[in-house]
Amino acid sequence: MDIHINKSNATPLYVQLKESIKSLISHGQYRNGDRLPTTRKLAEDLDIHRNTVIMAYKALEDEGYAYSHVGRGTFVIEPEKMDKKEEIAFYNMFDWSGHLSDKLRKRISGKLLTLYQSESNPVRISFVWSQKGSQDFPIKKIQTAINSVIRNRKFLFEYTRSIGNLELRKIVTHHLHQKGIQIETDEIMITNGAQQAIDLIGRLLIEPGESVVIENPTYTGALTVFQFLQAKIIGIPVDEWGMKVHLLEDVLIKYRPKFIFTNPTYQNPTGTNMRIDRREKIVALAEQYQIPIVEDDYGSDLQISGPELPLLKSLDTSGQVIYIGTFSKTLIPGMRLGWIAASKEVINLLAEVKRFNDLCTTPFLQSIVTEFHNRGYMATYIRYLKRRLTERRDTMMKAIEDCFPPETTYIKPHGGVYLWVTVPKYIDLHSVWKDCLKQGVAFSLGSLFYLDSGGENQMRLRFAYVSKKEIVEGIKIIGEVMKEYSQQ
Ligand SMILES: Cc1ncc(COP(=O)(O)O)c(C=O)c1O
Question: In 413-465, which ranges are continuous DSSP H helix?
Answer without folding.
Answer: 429-438
